[in-house]
Design brief:
- The complex is a heterodimer.
- By secondary structure, chain A is mainly alpha-helical.
- In chain A, 83% of the residues lie in helices and 0% in strands.
- Chain B is 9% helix and 44% strand.
- Chain B is globular and about 80 Å long.
- Chain B folds into two domains: 1-29; 42-324, TolB, C-terminal domain (Neuraminidase, 6 Propeller), CATH 2.120.10.30.
- Chain B contains one helix and 26 strands.
- Chain B is mainly beta.
- In chain B, the strands form six sheets. Chain B has a six-stranded mixed β-sheet with strand order 13-12-17-16-15-14, with no helix packed on it. A four-stranded antiparallel β-sheet of chain B has the order 3-2-1-26, with no helix packed on it.
- The chains are: A mainly alpha, B mainly beta.
């Protein structure tokens, strides 16, 4: 079903525009969603076939693939903060985001032209990761600046839903091509390049670079101003809460590893776990965003994290049946829908207009560092005291983090109530 | 501006659909190459021992992965359409791990002694190792999974190892779900990976495998029935039991690298020695007979004496995944 909807979105943006009119989502947000949808199709097409391509066509060992896959993820964090600040400083969010999307498109072209060595593929993957690091903060700032403050969560929900449609379509298109033309990885790369170019074209041609809330007057912000966000009366508590909540949340990759140990099912079922979580996320991102705009972002954010307790409870069961598994995956999808986009929306509401991209860049970096700490800690606890005790400790830490972050988040949000 | 942008976008969409669709159709229509029957070529040391190998020829999809039988100084291409990345065969039953029948996903086939598919299974990752117990009762398969690299570390690539009932073709379990003990105590960590099972020729319930965690690669000894394993020693990957069950050939990592040397250890003492092969070998070795190892470097199949003497010799060119056929 999502397939049909997404292909319509691809070919007839107007249809989505009409639907989004009912949602009252700014055109710019739908266009940015389309850019992400196309770019994600492009990226996921390559990501899906890359292991097969490296190992079957280029004869790389799986260890080499692991190295290529893992090496460049760390680099993205620093790039995010820098690109966020630069786009605020130059007031050129669209152009900086375009640079990021452009780099990824160039990477796809390079894959077609020069992707026949393992080293070449490694370099191209690195360029792609840097491109992703560059574009995220200015793009989210554009989404935020295009939306009225009381519709931010809906806007981010629409964007994240479209983004995940692209992530689901990419592998299907790649498999479709390989089904028609077996072992012709070049065809996958060519089509992936075209999607990347289309995404960039939609950004350049259809996205407004100076949306309604974009600052037009006043001096460009200095680095000091961006850094002082770290002690901002409203943003600092938000960052603190985001850091605490991300440390207390077990990463989805670890949850899947845990589930895999607890459930005795056919190996073929395993990929379906990811699909089910993704479909739930896709379906819930928009309604949950609307809910957050109506009843408040903080309660939705906290309720989303509370869904993790359901996931933890399933991880604690000694034998997990299909019903428990489905409940767990739906809860996980709901958790995603109610947290990342809503948190960014909250940041968008709290941050001053001239520092949107800087603040969002800092937020993303803090959250990803928090996740890293969480993964290392969970791994260490699992080793030391076993999976069940580790989950119990994380449940307790999550309860504590939620209790502590609630007042912090409310403090961040407070002035918005007055004006 | 808005309107013009929209028009250009639509024109671009049309152009991309035509271009991309055209390229895919062109790729799908271009003829696949014809079969050459000259490969794999035998090397200088073609033994009379019966051997099964898979052909390596990435340039020729119609030949790459085909199964050949080497014996009586001749090479015979197997009948049937099996195309495999990794094979094993024992007691009339074989495993072929490769790309699924759909052509777009990984899968495995259990085949009989005339290479006819008996069961097919889907795989969740890249085929890596396959084994069948000498009595034909159990099978084991290892795949690489890229999905759950939970830390951004180059070593975060993970594996899954499945046990099969070769009669029904069903999965008996995953090593990841078995309990492990080390020095008598329960042993568990999130980054546990298992690979390279080998079965005891005298008792197929007993197996050895590799447990990777952190920077360690432990040799574990396990029981299918008890669903449990215990750690024996460190530094052993891809164990392979000798026909008499007394020695284990394995790949020993050259410290701090992704290079391996083949070693042989004594099961009773756990002491090991290197063999004469000097190339880096990333393979689960096979015992050609009681004294000789056979293995591949991903390009050709070689042999070397197991006792550390002599030197390695080329057995079959352009082939991997050697299986000694015992009657």
């Amino acid at each position: 079903m999502y397939q049909v909807e997404a292909s319509k979105a691809l070919l007839k943006p107007r249809l989505w525009a009409r639907r989004s009119a009912r949602l009252r989502v700014p055109r710019n947000v739908v266009m940015l969603g389309t850019v992400s949808l196309l770019t994600d199709i492009s990226a996921e097409m390559v990501a899906t076939v890359l292991p097969m391509y490296l190992i079957f066509s280029l004869g790389a060992s799986p260890l080499v693939f692991g190295a290529i896959d893992g090496t460049y993820r760390g680099a993205a964090a620093l790039v995010q903060v820098l690109s966020g600040f630069s786009s605020d400083r130059w007031r050129r969010h669209k152009e900086v985001a375009g640079l990021g999307y452009g780099l990824s498109a160039v990477g796809k072209v390079a894959l077609v032209a020069a992707g026949n060595t393992v080293g070449g593929v490694g370099a191209i993957v690195a360029v792609d990761r840097v491109g992703k690091g560059i574009r995220t903060a200015p793009r989210d700032a554009l989404i935020s600046l295009s939306s009225a403050k009381d519709k931010l969560a809906t806007s981010f929900g629409v964007h994240r839903a479209m983004d995940s449609v692209g992530a689901m379509l990419g592998p299907l298109i790649a498999f479709g091509i390989l089904f028609l033309a077996p072992a012709r990885f070049d065809a996958v790369f060519v089509v992936s390049t075209l999607f990347a170019v289309l995404g960039l074209a939609v950004l350049v041609l259809n996205v407004e670079g100076k949306p309604r809330r974009a600052p037009r007057e006043g001096a460009p912000p200095r680095l000091g101003a961006a850094l002082s966000l770290l002690k901002d009366r409203r943003f600092a508590p938000l960052l603190l809460a985001a850091a605490g909540l991300s440390i207390a949340s077990v990463s989805d990759a670890l949850i899947y590893v845990g589930l895999q140990r607890a459930i005795d099912f056919e190996p073929a079922v395993f990929p379906l776990l990811y699909v089910m979580t993704a479909i739930t996320f896709m379906g819930l991102a928009i309604p949950v965003g609307q809910l957050a705009d109506r009843v408040g972002k903080v309660p939705v954010l906290l309720a989303g994290h509370a869904l993790l307790f359901v996931v933890y409870a399933v991880l604690l069961m000694t034998s997990v049946g299909y019903l428990a598994l489905i409940v767990c995956l739906v809860a996980l999808g709901g958790y995603f829908a109610a947290t990342e986009g809503v948190m960014t929306a909250l940041a968008g509401a709290v941050l001053p207009e001239k520092l949107q991209a800087s603040g969002i860049g800092i937020l993303i970096t803090v959250v990803s560092l928090g996740r890293l700490v969480s993964s290392v800690a969970f791994g260490a606890l699992w080793f030391a005291i076993g999976l069940h005790s580790a989950v119990l400790i994380f449940a307790a830490v999550l309860a504590l983090a939620m209790a502590l972050s609630a007042p912090l988040l409310l403090r961040a949000q407070r002035p918005a109530w007055n004006g | 501006m808005d309107r013009r942008g929209g028009r250009i976008t639509i024109a671009l969409v049309v152009a991309c659909v035509l271009l991309g669709g055209g390229y895919v159709v062109y790729a799908a229509m271009s003829p696949s190459d014809t079969t050459t029957d000259a490969r794999p070529r035998a090397g200088e040391v073609l033994a009379d021992t019966e051997l099964m190998v898979r052909a390596v020829d990435p340039a020729s999809p119609s030949l790459n992965g085909r199964v050949f039988v080497v014996g009586d100084g001749k090479l015979r291409r197997s009948t049937g359409d099996l195309s495999c990345e990794r094979i094993y065969f024992a007691a009339g039953r074989g495993i072929c791990m490769g790309v699924a029948a759909s052509g777009v996903d990984y899968g495995a086939t259990v085949f009989d002694d005339r290479f006819r598919p008996v069961h097919s299974l889907s795989l969740t990752g890249l085929p890596s190792r396959a084994r069948v117990s000498p009595d034909g009762r159990y099978g084991a398969m290892t795949v690489f999974v890229s999905g759950d690299a939970y830390l951004a570390s180059p070593t975060a690539f993970s594996t899954r190892t499945y046990l099969l009932d070769m009669k029904s073709g069903g999965t008996i379990g995953q090593l990841e779900q078995f309990g492990v003990t080390k020095d008598g105590a329960r042993f568990d960590a999130v980054d546990f990976n298992f690979w390279g099972i080998t079965f005891d020729p005298a008792d197929s319930d007993r197996f050895y495998a590799t447990l990777g965690t952190g920077s360690h690669h432990y040799l574990v000894e396990g029981s299918v029935h008890d669903r449990s394993m215990r750690v024996l020693r460190d530094g052993v990957e891809c164990p392979s039991l000798s026909p008499d069950g007394k020695r284990i050939a394995f790949k020993s990592r050259v410290e701090g690298t992704n290079r391996w040397r083949l070693h042989v250890l004594d099961v009773a003492t756990l002491e090991d020695h290197p063999v004469a092969e000097e190339r880096s070998i990333d393979d689960q070795a096979e015992w050609l007979d009681a004294e000789t190892l056979v293995y591949s470097n991903g390009i050709n199949v070689y042999t070397v004496p197991a006792d550390g003497s002599g030197e390695s010799g080329l057995l079959v060119r352009d082939a991997t995944s050697p299986v000694a056929l015992r009657s």
